[in-house]
Amino acid sequence: MEQKTTIKQTFHINKTDTKQLSFKEIVTQRYATKKFDGRILPQEKVEELLDDIRLSASSFGLQPWKIKVVTDPATKALLSPIAWNQAQITTCSHLLIFCADTNINKLIDLYEEAKIKDGATKEGIAGYIEMMRGFDKKMTPEQKLTWAQKQCYIALGNALNGAKALGFDSCPMEGFDSAGFAKALKLPANLVPTVLCPIGYASPDDKSYSKIRFSKEQVFF
Predict the structure, then answer these.
(1) Which 3 state secondary structure label does DSSP give 195?
(2) Residues 34, 92, 149, 217: what is their CA dihedral angle, to the nearest 10 degrees?
(3) How many domains are contained in the chain?
(4) Is 23 helix (H, G, I), strand (E, B) or coil?
(5) Which DSSP symbol is given to 83?
(6) How many CA atoms does the CB half-sphere of 60 hold within 13 Å?
(7) Backbone phi, then psi, for 10, in 5-degree steps?
(8) What stretches in the chain show pLDDT beneath 50?
(9) Are 199 and 92 in contact (CB under 8 A)?
């Protein structure tokens, strides 16, 4: 039985190890990288990660998020002050900006179209579609945003673990001005920047990392 204390796992991040990791190794070795080395990730690996994110679970399967992928240095430099000049923004290979999409009615339309294209009949899914429309109508704009933002964090989990599974690093970030990002990127009103996930290869300056997690007895009851 695990002792009732916090668990500290210390390990050295191997920058070149590309062996296939087990899921246990992925969740153990993944950590919030504070500085990347500036190298650009192979595009095929990025595409694989984006697909992993696309396959994330979400309420009703509506995926109420849009993810802005930023790669050019000029845009990163523009966004850096709005994220308090944290090194992850300008040193990463790709910056993923998870935006909550509050246009739920439009997402329901898209979902209905996709289901019919997949072989369902409009009549056969009418009840489910109507249930979702009722869910949408009963929410205030603030509730819609909160709901959509919660879904973003589910997708973020796939991004973080998926990056490590593919052999690179990541960092979940809430330290930024959402309104400032929306303005800088000229986003429509229904897309609200919610959480950032820079990805890339960790810098050699990122030293051995001690991962502190509470014990099972402190977490589960």
Answers:
(1) strand
(2) -40
(3) 1
(4) helix
(5) G
(6) 25
(7) -110, 130
(8) 1-6, 10-16
(9) yes
pLDDT, tens digit, for every residue of 181-202? 999 999 999 999 999 999 999 9
Q: Is residue 1 part of a domain?
A: no
Domain holding 16, by residue range, is 7-219
Compute the distance between CA of residue 30 and CA of residue 164 in angstroms, rounded to an integer.
Answer: 6
What confidence tens digit (pLDDT) does each residue in 132-157 have?
Answer: 999 999 999 999 999 999 999 999 99
Within a domain: residue 2? no
Q: How many residues does this entry show for the chain? A: 221
* 122 Cβ contact partners less than 8 Å away, ≥ 6 residues apart: 112, 116
**pLDDT at position 7, please?**
52
* Predicted pLDDT at 93: 98
Question: What predicted TM-score, i.e. pTM, was given to this entire model?
Answer: 0.91
CATH code for the domain in which residue 115 is found: 3.40.109.10
Residue 106 in any domain: the answer is yes
